[in-house]
Specification:
Blueprint (H helix, E strand, L loop, with lengths): L1 H26 L18 H8 L2 E9 L6 E9 L5 H14 L15 E6 L4 E6 L2 H4 L5 H18 L5 E6 L28
Parallel strand pairs: 4-5
Antiparallel strand pairs: 1-2, 3-4
């Protein structure tokens, strides 16, 4: 009879003791192991900061001067990427499409989209542009020549790997841009179109 009573008392005592030990174990652990990191919402995001810290380099873009229809240099900064000339070519072309900061005429229509850039081992840059490159282009042989050589010279002058440029529209070859200058072959740069002053 006593044995039964002592068992019925012992079980709850052991249960309470076990619960107490468990609570002590979990509550007395190192509370500093998980810390909240304060979030600074006033500063730029880490991705933006990383982008801003990437090394830059200066390049020369070529835009059209209205009075004499010559190409004029305009300096610009792009993100430097010596390991990827195609990435730098893309940045150069996007800046060219963005237009002049000095009031010069843009060689490419602002609506033009850059689809793809690829540079072969032989040094030919394939530049694929959207249909707006053709559809929104002003007519005239001078405008056509300026547009083509603004692209070709901007790439070749800034990238040692680029010897010639092949311009495509929506992935397709074209005979000409507007009827005057052949686009069905890679085009070498022509720096004689650049203003000397």
């Amino acid at each position: 009879m006593l044995k039964g009573k002592s068992r019925s008392i012992l079980i709850p005592v052991l249960a309470v003791t076990a619960l107490g030990l468990a609570a002590f174990f979990f509550l007395s652990g190192n509370r500093e192991s998980i810390k909240k990191v304060p979030v600074d919402s006033s500063g730029p995001s880490s991705a933006a900061a990383t982008a801003d810290e990437r090394p830059k380099r200066k390049v020369d873009l070529f835009f059209l001067r209205d009075e004499d229809e010559q190409l004029v240099r305009e300096g610009r900064e792009i993100v430097a990427d010596a390991a990827s000339p195609a990435a730098e070519a893309r940045s150069i072309l996007l800046e060219l499409i963005r237009g002049s900061n000095a009031g010069l005429l843009s060689a490419l229509p602002a609506e033009t989209k850059l689809i793809q850039v690829y540079i072969t081992k032989e040094g030919t840059a394939y530049v694929d542009l959207s249909r707006e490159f053709v559809d929104r282009h002003p007519s005239g042989s001078s405008a056509e020549i300026a547009t083509v050589y603004a692209v070709v010279d901007s790439l070749a002058a800034n990238l040692k790997t680029v010897k010639k440029v092949f311009i495509l529209v929506e992935g397709e070859e074209r005979e000409t841009l507007a009827g005057h200058l052949a686009l069905d072959r890679p085009i070498a740069p022509d720096y004689s179109l650049i203003a000397k002053d």
